[in-house]
Amino acid sequence: MQFCKDCGGVLNLFGNNEGELCSSCIQHRKPAPPPQEKRENEYEELLEETVLLCENNKIILRSKEGWELWSAPVTAETDLKTALKQAQRIYKIRSRRRKN
Q: Which domain of life does the protein's organism represent (predicted)?
């Protein structure tokens, strides 16, 4: 006698069941999520046409549209990942507003 790997119920009670799961578990099983496209760099789109410049004692990340996406004083230490995350969020918001 074989048992379901998921719920522990009996498998071969009526006929042959070649699988490892009972019909109830198969029916309620969630389909596997589709594989997500892996991006080499999640900020790739943002960085393609963004400029990093220094003016008036500030470091500024500016988009091709001229939007100031992020800035910090020259003396401040900032994690690059944090700066890019904030810049990407601002870029998405401004892009949405521009479309409307």
A: Bacteria
